[in-house]
Design a protein that fits this description.
- By secondary structure, this protein is of the alpha/beta class.
- It folds into four domains: 23-104 and 253-379, FAD/NAD(P)-binding domain; 118-249 and 386-449, FAD/NAD(P)-binding domain (3-Layer(bba) Sandwich), CATH 3.50.50.60; 467-604, no CATH class; 626-685, Arc Repressor Mutant, subunit A, CATH 1.10.10.1100.
- 20% of the residues lie in helices and 25% in strands.
- It is built from 16 helices and 36 strands.
- The strands form eight sheets. Strands 8, 9, 10, 11, 12, 13, 24 and 36 form an eight-stranded mixed beta sheet that branches.
- Helix 2 runs parallel beside helix 4, helix 2 runs parallel beside helix 9 (412-429) and helix 5 packs parallel to helix 6 (292-303).
- The protein is globular.
- It starts with 22 loop residues before the first strand and ends with a strand.
Length: 711
Amino acid sequence: MSPEDPDRRLRSHPVLAIPTRELVHIRWRGRDLAAVSGEPISSALAAHGARVLGHHPKDGSARSLFCADGQCAQCLVLCDGRPVKACVTRVRDGAVVEPLDGLPVLAPAGAPSQSAPIEHVSVPVLIIGGGPAGLAAAAELGRRGVRALLLDDKPQLGGKLVLQTHRFFGSFNAVHAGVRGIDIAARLEREARAFESITFWTGATALAVFGDGVVGVLRAAREGQRDAPSDAGGYALVRPEVLLVATGARERSLVFPGNTLPGVIGAGAFQTLLHRDLVRPADRVLVVGGGNVGLIVAYQALQAGIEVVAVVEARTECGGYRVHRDKLARQGVPILTSHTIVAAHGTEGVEAATVASVDARFACVPGTERTFACDAVLLALGMDPERELLLKAREMGMRVLSAGDADEVAEASAAIYAGRLRGVEAARLVGVEPGDAPVDAWQHALEIHRSRPGATLAQPDPPEHDVVPVLHCVQEIPCDPCASTCPQGGIVIDADDIRHLPAFLGDRLAHACVGCERCVTICPGQAITLVDYRRDPEHPTVIVPYEMPDELAAGARVIALDVDGHVLGEVEVVRVRDAIVADHTLAVRVRVPRVIARYVAGIRATAWPTEAEPGVHDAWPAGRAVVCRCERVTADELRALVRAGHRDVHSLKVLSRIGMGACGARTCGPLVRQLLRDEGVAEDEVVEPRHRPLLVEVPLGAFAGPRVERR
């Protein structure tokens, strides 16, 4: 990415609509920059190619956006002289933003400001988290007339769903499978907001759980909230009878040389910039992690016109759904299993990254290093539940439930079922019986939707029919949109366990397949094609789904590919049209020789990318491997302390300052535990530190103000 490039905003996208938005102006390093009104400062700067937001006071290393979620504090800048997190601070017209180099200098004390009153609220159920689990729980409570308060620290409800442009798996009728994540979020919010007994606080952060059963909440100033006493925001103390924690999960990080360079970001941060704020943060990316998140974000990068130099996965097989992997393979993305990242290279940002193969113990194999030129490294290494509030509430003896990723990390479909179950349970705890809620069926469905990918099986050859759907789905995963939307009932899946592979009934159909294309375009894995022999049996047409940014029209020549991405030949496009039932998916009809018709699983509009020539990794500078970003504590420093006999994490904290930064060990805590395991320290030897309020950093002025009672 070129520095200070003024044109990083998305102008078009195959799925997302690009709205016309109001512009304001800010100043950055003495320059006037256009920004979208209300967007975060970090996104406004990224739109102009500014990645370095300051330099660390300890070693002068460049700091930049990492999580885009307000948790890591790596994006601190000065806004009108005050240090703020750029990823959660909204731009305003005329704001003066400067990089934060070193420690901020406090402004002279002025006249005392008027603080908002402290609000005291009592409520039967408090739900922390407005993602799929929290919204589903709120809807169940609302159906039973139970008063509940749902709060979320973001201005928009939906959790991570608001970043997801792909279609989701699971049950079509029960959890909106076949619908894009951004649309599922809107549906769940509408369902929850339909009930008058549910109150919503957005932009409200749960700071702590106290021993008297009260939850401290910091509310941002915001208008238009139901039952809000004012629009001034401020501090509130909420006393629930039942606390339901649906706080989701945070992305894992990784320790390697150069891991804190600007451009090394979480996959979720990449999606936030790309899909929420419509900013293209990179030109060439390396994706680390072959689970669902890594495979999905790599495909989403391609949809935005960003080159993916490779996806690397340390295990021998990708852990994500096979259909996600197959989609990438058909776009020519190298998927390097049994590989890991060795280092990110650059000075003020990522310029290249080196990967190497690993052995059975995940140790790098010398001599296998390959260096790719790229300007971003996307970390997609799985998720850790955000459980600090849950654990503290249990410690305080509160009646507390958990749902969604805060309970167990899984797909959004599982979170919806878990939210429904916990909502019913919360209602029962406050004295309201569940009525006719199908609890047993939900529990059964939850176990199915939580399950990991199953066996990969061979699909039988499709039967000879005039029109026949070819099912390229070969892995057992919970999914049924194809069977649920076929008007002829021609595709079937075991209704009791939708992890079984779909099957086409063929001769057992009462009415022949009419080629309506519904199964093709609604399939979340793009794993169904439709072969039509009616006009020319020797040169049938194949209908394939397409969501890439290329402009296709009748007469174009494209490359036909099998399910694994092998080239079958060049074929002609006969027709391109929007899908009948699935928005923003094209149904592309291509004419192919009969001998390859049933093998065509997808198309590619452009030639295969030329794989980057491996560079010499020793020629690229690499930074240090940092465990604690806030205090710049390296892996080598910690290893030395552990080898000296320190097993108490609190001792490590005192000796190295690890975990003492603004993020409160949310980023480095799991990395410290992993380092201890790598050093051969048994879990029962590790003494964890106590977590005390507050769990989130907050200005002290938020706690000042007169008491206001509210029930």
